[in-house]
Design brief:
The protein is mainly beta. It is 0% helix and 50% strand. The chain has a single domain, classed as Sandwich (Jelly Rolls).
Length: 164
C-alpha cells in the first residue's frame, strides 16, 4: 500500500536557516552559528564537541489534530568521532502543560560524516497528531555529551504541517 503525504510549504520555524540573529528566534546552549559550513544556502549551528551538552530549541504554534514534518541536515566537523543527537517535539496546552511527546528521534554518532567532505546526513521525521487541546510545540535539537567527540553541525531546519 502506498501512502501519500501532503506537506504544507510554510516553515513554522522562524530562522531555520540561521540567516538572522539566532538569539531572537532560538534558545541556544553551548552552540553558535557557523557561517563557514552551509547546507543548501542555510548557515549551520555548531554544537560544541566533547563532554559539553549542547542544544537549540524553539516554540511554534500548532494546530490540534495535525501531524508535522521536522527536517534538517547534520554533519560532524572533523575526522574524529561525532556525537549522538536527539530530536524532540513536545506538544503543550496554552497553559504550558505538557500534553504529549510528539516525536523522539536519535541520530547515532556513526550517522554523521565530515562536513569538509561535503557530506550531510538528511533527517526527516513525522510527529504524531497534536493532541486536541494543543497550542504550541517545543522543538529541541540536542547534541549529547560524548567524550572526545568533534563538534556537530545542524542546518536547514524546517517544521511543517503534514497530512498523513
Amino acid at each position: 500500500m502506498t501512502r501519500t503525504v501532503n506537506i504544507n510549504s510554510n516553515n513554522l520555524l522562524t530562522n531555520g536557516d540561521f540567516r538572522i540573529d539566532p538569539n531572537a528566534t532560538w534558545t541556544l546552549y553551548n552552540s553558535f552559528i557557523n557561517k563557514s559550513y552551509c547546507h543548501n544556502g542555510s548557515y549551520s549551528v555548531e554544537f560544541l564537541g566533547g563532554e559539553n551538552n549542547s542544544y537549540i530549541q524553539q516554540s511554534v504554534a500548532v494546530t490540534p489534530l495535525k501531524s508535522y514534518l521536522i527536517r534538517g541536515a547534520f554533519a560532524k566537523l572533523g575526522s574524529g568521532e561525532g556525537a549522538p543527537v536527539n530530536i524532540l517535539v513536545q506538544f503543550y496546552s496554552k497553559e504550558s502543560k505538557l500534553l504529549k511527546i510528539g516525536l523522539y528521534a536519535s541520530l547515532f554518532a556513526s550517522d554523521l560524516e565530515d562536513v569538509r567532505e561535503g557530506k550531510w546526513f538528511p533527517y526527516w521525521g513525522y510527529t504524531i497528531e497534536a493532541p486536541e487541546n494543543s497550542s504550541y510545540a517545543l522543538i529541541i535539537i540536542n547534541k549529547i555529551s560524548s567524550k572526545n567527540s568533534v563538534p556537530v553541525l545542524g542546518s536547514n531546519f524546517a517544521f511543517k504541517e503534514a497530512e498523513l
